[in-house]
Design a protein that fits this description.
9 helices; globular; alpha+beta; 4-stranded antiparallel sheet; homodimer
């Protein structure tokens, strides 16, 4: 990919305020975006997340009032809720070891060092009270990746942080995971005047320090 | 961009364990990656971050021992430290209002509603003790975006969470911001056997729920 194309698409993207409710993301494109979520990197590869694709218009309508009433929840072609693992425990670590053993054809016993390291890391996070915050950060890696991937595929997106996690968890039936953020994806409406506003970013000299 | 290309590149990427110290990212590619960081989305557009590009080999050598001694710190073509804003306050909000006013040609007074909303949001975060955690999540959006952008440009990368933030802050002279994570970028060494291991991801049916 040409570096100029990357920058062009990242300038093109914006937090879409109004989606065209009539336009739907083609299946092949959506499938690639889902695959990009599955492939998201995470610390130790633990993947402490669930991505909930809300297809039901009824459920989207229920989520809208607990999302600052934003129209994107119901108007966008696709709507994904990002949930982070709560109180990650040794079963999560064992599951990753089992999956690694399966996919790489390595006996679990040979992964004991990796397992111990993850258990030690988890223990430290728990002691510092940072376990769920750590999961949340991993989820934000996935969100950041999705926003970039979407922009490159010419898909508009809007991340929504202003959601009521407890309400979302109840409506979506989440257990052991908690909603953190949602992303609406689709195509901007021609009526969305915010699409044409200049992007507000601090200059590179302020944001990037060289040492 | 073709959706298949996205998936192909995300499968190609991996957390590079060993970089080729002789290969350097071309300037135009690196410039695009820096620009992608500047363009990263953030909640309200507050950009609560600094990205420190560590060019000095001496400083990289100092960072290595407080980075689990990982070779990527010194071997990679480029090394970026991601720092999050500490105790974001009204001056950050005023700075964003001033920049918005400047770039969009709107008098600050007309942005008073936006300003109040951000101040209210900040106040709630402070009361819940989640102010710095919120900044950290925004930083992880930027990291997630960078990892995807790099993969698409054919650049290898490795995020390093195992760093000592206090040590990093001191060496880099960070004030008002704290190091959260670093990313090494460059080209994989042909000696890195981990490059050929199958990727370990849970299946889409486990990670993505449809409702």
């Amino acid at each position: 990919m040409n570096p100029d194309f990357l920058v062009q698409q990242l300038r093109w993207r914006y937090a879409t305020k109004k989606f065209d409710p009539a336009r739907r993301i083609p299946d092949a494109t959506w499938k690639a975006l889902e695959e990009s979520l599955v492939l998201s990197p995470s610390s130790f590869g633990l993947q402490p997340w669930k991505f909930v694709v809300v297809e039901s218009p009824e459920i989207r309508s229920k989520l809208q009032p607990i999302s600052w009433n934003q129209s994107q929840v119901v108007d966008a072609s696709h709507f994904v809720v990002f949930a982070g693992r709560l109180r990650l425990d040794s079963t999560d670590i064992d599951a990753l070891i089992a999956k690694t053993s399966e996919l790489r054809g390595v006996p679990s016993e040979k992964l004991e060092g990796y397992r111990s390291m993850m258990l030690g890391f988890r223990q430290k996070l728990e002691e510092s009270g940072g376990l769920d915050a750590w999961s949340a950060r991993q989820v934000y890696l996935a969100i950041g990746g999705l926003l970039t991937s979407a922009a490159l595929l010419g898909i508009d997106a809007c991340p929504l942080e202003g959601i009521d996690p407890a309400g979302y968890n109840e409506i979506l039936g989440l257990r052991g995971y908690s909603a953190l953020c949602a992303v609406a994806l689709g195509y901007r409406s021609l009526e969305d005047a915010t699409a044409n506003l200049p992007k507000v970013r601090y200059p590179v000299s302020q944001v990037i320090q060289r040492i």
